[in-house]
Design brief:
binds magnesium ion, 11 helices, 314 residues, Alpha-Beta Plaits, elongated, four-stranded antiparallel sheet, Rossmann fold, binds adenosine-5'-triphosphate, 29% strand, six-stranded mixed sheet, alpha/beta
């Protein structure tokens, strides 16, 4: 349904998307996970026909985005990062406008249908400028779905809305994902875990890791502990920590150590017991959930040749 083939985009000399290739099937929610500036929006804008690729292409429902952009646009519903707002339009007028622009059959009845679906029908005559952020986001989703496209491209749909609305939007996306192909960007790890069938982690315009959230968790997420020890030489304490069963890696951090583990069980008790048995004291020990940054660092470190070409020139 979405097949991206070696897609790249330069802004001047800056390479924002670097030969990205991936596929997403019908009924699949594919997460594009990456920090600010990773190239998520640039990728989505190319797929939706708002930005021409510098090289490479993609197929949407077997239609080429470069050669056949009219056909591909009809097949995509796009929720951009910043929903373009026409403040003086009514809610209904806004959705109808997008429906007609895309040549949707029975535009009026489709408009009313999506307004009902997103609980906006009772506000159909409200001016867009009077909607709250959360409602604007729902309006953006209604607009994206009005022409009943098989593919949905949603650029950080939960950003800037309140927790209740976040839950609602996530539920809507999960439901839509049963029928549609969805490309969903976020920089929130837990969100990707909750919603996506598969995740691509991108950084500097490249895929640095991919898999189901469970696979990534197993392969990349390591549980980490920060441990500060009283007594003992650094090298000795480090060797001691390293010898604990389940410990994968020990590194110095601030006045203590960062202990990484791939084990599922909590190692805090084992760590403190070892330290105390060796005659040292535990000054501090706490578990740290891997942050997105840790995962990036692990993924980038593991990616072959990853250090080359961060700011590749043409
Ligand atoms: N029009 C532009 N001109 C020049 N550079 C740009 C332009 N748009 C984006 N960039 C740069 O390209 C890189 C990728 O940007 P992009 O917006 O695609 O990232 P993103 O992953 O969507 O980030 P965010 O999480 O902040 O939305 C960034 O370094 C950004 O500064
Ligand atoms: Mg973005």
């Amino acid at each position: 349904m979405i097949e991206v083939k070696s897609l790249s985009r330069h802004y001047g000399d800056f390479l924002a998307v670097d030969q990205l290739s991936f596929k997403a099937k019908q009924g699949e929610i594919l997460g594009l996970l990456g920090p600010n500036g990773a190239g998520k929006t640039t990728t989505m804008r190319m797929l939706t026909g708002y930005l021409p690729p510098s090289s490479g292409t993609a197929l949407i429902d077997h239609h080429d985005i470069v050669r056949d952009s009219v056909e591909t646009r009809k097949r995509i519903g796009y929720l951009p990062e910043r929903v373009p707002i026409y403040p003086d339009m009514t809610v209904r007028g806004y959705v109808l406008f997008w429906a007609q622009l895309r040549g949707t059959k029975e535009a009026k009845s489709r408009t009313d249908m999506v307004l009902k679906q997103f609980d906006l029908y009772t506000r159909k005559n409200t001016l867009v400028r009077h909607l709250s952020k959360g409602l604007k986001q729902r309006l953006g989703l209604a607009q994206a779905l009005v022409h009943d496209p098989p593919v949905l491209i949603l650029d950080e749909p939960t950003i800037g809305i309140d927790p209740q609305q976040v839950i609602e939007v996530r539920d809507v996306v999960k439901e839509l994902g049963k029928q549609h192909t969805i490309l969903f960007s976020t920089h929130i790890l837990t969100e990707a875990e909750e919603i996506c069938d598969r995740v691509l982690i991108i950084d500097h315009g490249r895929i640095v890791a991919q898999g189901t959230p469970q696979q990534l968790q197993k392969e990349i997420y390591s549980t980490q502990y920060y441990v500060q020890v009283g007594g003992g030489k650094t090298a000795d304490v480090r060797a001691l920590l390293q010898s604990i069963s389940g410990v994968a890696e020990v590194s110095a951090e601030k006045d203590g150590f960062l202990v990484k583990s791939t084990a599922n069980e909590d190692l805090r008790a084992a760590i403190s017991t070892s330290i105390v048995s060796a005659g040292y004291t535990v000054l501090e020990i706490h578990q740290r959930r891997s942050t997105l940054e840790d995962i990036f660092l692990a993924a980038i470190k593991a990616a072959p040749g990853a250090q080359a070409g961060k700011k590749a020139k043409r």
